[in-house]
Amino acid sequence: HHIVEVKNLRHVYPDGTEALKGVSFRIHHGESVAIIGANGAGKSTLLLHLNGYHSPTAGEVRIGDFLLSKGTLPGIRRTVGMVFQDPDDQLFMPTVYDDVAFGPLNLGLNGNELERCVADALERVGAAHLAAKAPYHLSGGEKKRVAIATVLSMSPDILVLDEPASGLDPYARRQLIGLLKEFRHTKIFTSHDLDLVLELCQRVILLKEGEVRADGPAAEILRDE
Ligand code: ADP
Ligand code: ADP
């Protein structure tokens, strides 16, 4: 059964830029897929369709049994956890704890249940010791891990990450790879880091100028590029 289905997806920005020109693919439960391609190929635009931030100019996006083509689905952010390229877009509370608690709090969690959920998410990204810190005091790698924790605390079925390794030093990058390997559900991410792609995914979708240029085994597609 497919957890993601994108069919003939087109996206035209208000200024007329056609960022996606009829993109189609399907992703199975538990698959790990990298979306690669040059700058401007349409990767970020595509990711923003997967949780309803964008609505299609034409075509369809399905997540599980739900059709997103008519816009944002209530609850979609619980199903699809989106990690932006810049963690500063995601961290806006006074403390790390508050940021990670924000989503579950909105879902109605409180008391011990909320505390356990936040502690668990921070634990999984190796950031338990940062709970009381102000997000803006963190290093780039720490911010990235906390941004991922804010999404993990919602227990998403699908984790979507835009350039997860960008700006990380080699040590932070290794930590990130480790934590992504431990996330057993569906993962979809963009990356220019081809070694990371090979380590984390079996499958690569190559975009070029808003179209799918190749879709198949990572090793094969990266060898041909
Ligand atoms: P990538 O993530 O692969 O670098 P993007 O999805 O960011 O590609 O961009 C795809 C195309 O859409 C590019 O030509 C880019 O300039 C254009 N684009 C992206 N965002 C906007 C926007 N808000 N308004 C107009 N054009 C945009
Ligand atoms: P729609 O759902 O109709 O696609 P969005 O909510 O995605 O509209 O976008 C609203 C406005 O924000 C648009 O003018 C769009 O160009 C702009 N926008 C959306 N995503 C980006 C982005 N990644 N970078 C810059 N501008 C963006």
TrEMBL record:
<dbReference type="GO" id="GO:0042626">
    <property type="term" value="F:ATPase-coupled transmembrane transporter activity"/>
</dbReference>
<protein>
    <submittedName>
        <fullName>ABC transporter ATP-binding protein</fullName>
    </submittedName>
</protein>
<dbReference type="InterPro" id="IPR017871">
    <property type="entry name" value="ABC_transporter-like_CS"/>
</dbReference>
<keyword id="KW-0067">ATP-binding</keyword>
<feature type="domain" description="ABC transporter">
    <location>
        <begin position="4"/>
        <end position="225"/>
    </location>
</feature>
<keyword id="KW-0547">Nucleotide-binding</keyword>
<comment type="similarity">
    <text>Belongs to the ABC transporter superfamily.</text>
</comment>
<dbReference type="GO" id="GO:0005524">
    <property type="term" value="F:ATP binding"/>
</dbReference>
<keyword id="KW-0472">Membrane</keyword>
<keyword id="KW-1278">Translocase</keyword>
<keyword id="KW-1003">Cell membrane</keyword>
<dbReference type="GO" id="GO:0043190">
    <property type="term" value="C:ATP-binding cassette (ABC) transporter complex"/>
</dbReference>
<dbReference type="GO" id="GO:0016887">
    <property type="term" value="F:ATP hydrolysis activity"/>
</dbReference>
<dbReference type="InterPro" id="IPR003593">
    <property type="entry name" value="AAA+_ATPase"/>
</dbReference>
<dbReference type="InterPro" id="IPR003439">
    <property type="entry name" value="ABC_transporter-like_ATP-bd"/>
</dbReference>
<keyword id="KW-0813">Transport</keyword>
<dbReference type="Pfam" id="PF00005">
    <property type="entry name" value="ABC_tran"/>
</dbReference>
<dbReference type="InterPro" id="IPR027417">
    <property type="entry name" value="P-loop_NTPase"/>
</dbReference>
<dbReference type="InterPro" id="IPR015856">
    <property type="entry name" value="ABC_transpr_CbiO/EcfA_su"/>
</dbReference>
<dbReference type="InterPro" id="IPR050095">
    <property type="entry name" value="ECF_ABC_transporter_ATP-bd"/>
</dbReference>
